């Protein structure tokens, strides 16, 4: 730099990029007592990047387990920041993940829920229709996963929240200041100097680069990682008149992600009155400085969305992501050693992680690898060097799922078989009416842990603990002693309950005195839509 360059005060941490990641980083750094500078090349809260608008989804359902752990921690930090600022940026709802039953990403989502004991339900198309009162229709061969943690974040409001909190803790904020150079100081103080296009020089002990789609232009080394910039489509569907309240975030309509082709996601009605937001994950390659602002929403969504006359409002959003769609959170290295931390590639599934990412970046910048050691299991996937000699980056483990039915199909242990034998004993030694009431626990537990004839190891252990230890044959016999018996028709296939997609255990009772068909009592859905009327049990 020329000697005439204007120099500012020296900071502990300089953050380049004032989107949600940079603003969160500035907040955490200032909160730690670090003298912090946040620099943005455009106006604060601009609409040219990936941190603007009125809605982003939050969810903890991920094929990759490390993202799930991050999302859980991030949700806590969102709530903590809300308590500090005094207003809400996060509206809660259920989360719905849907897709073909053999989709490996969706199966990995389910596997993660099982391994981490996450409360979830697996539904077939008919149960999904019933659960959401006809608002969501799935193809025959699709399933749905419903979890408790979902909702909508308000992006612009969130960025403003982090910036306000950063100022509260003493940070300095500068917008309309484009940084064109980052160099390591050659004097005894060390650290780095960043230079603006106007020639102003800012000096700091540490620098964090969170420039979104402009990271690779600012830091050439990162661009070797193969950043991809895409212009993705966002459509807003108008809800049919008189149904507006049914799709609002407070009416039980979920945030959602669809693992079909293309991958889409969306939110309940919140951003615009009476409209649902749907987005395509990914898009057309573009230059962030030369992008087109139009959209072709209808073509991009294909036949996945039934919106009759097309979207009411179409928008575009800038995506920046790596080839493996994992983040970059790492030291720049080279001559900078650990003085410069780089973060990027968050588009599509990163906004929700902002509170935690900001915290991790500050830990790395201020304390080095040791300070961020708590998150090593997560950030080991986000190294810059993973692309060296491997342009595709991280290899995903979804193929380890193998065939879904091989790894995740029904695996009846002796304990689960006992449950069905116990159920049979209840029916044989009582009336169907009384047995139905007594078996509510079995029905509820089974339906909550079973979907489309798939059971997991978690269900086996859950059954043993909750059901078998709570109900004994002797107890049941004593309760129903003296009640007239009832014959029941059974259907068996091999050694597992089977009825095809959408079937659940049902009862068909016959009163032994009248020898005619009695009113069926059902453990599952009422008969209809192709549902069977039999209680399926395994052969011994």
UniProtKB/TrEMBL annotation:
GO terms for molecular function: flavin adenine dinucleotide binding; sarcosine oxidase activity. Its cofactor is FAD. Residues 12-364 form the FAD dependent oxidoreductase domain. The keyword Flavoprotein applies. It holds the Pfam family DAO. It comes from the Eukaryota. Keywords: FAD, Flavoprotein, Oxidoreductase. Belongs to the MSOX/MTOX family. PANTHER family: FAD DEPENDENT OXIDOREDUCTASE DOMAIN-CONTAINING PROTEIN (PTHR10961:SF7), PEROXISOMAL SARCOSINE OXIDASE (PTHR10961). This is FAD dependent oxidoreductase domain-containing protein. It comes from Centaurea solstitialis.
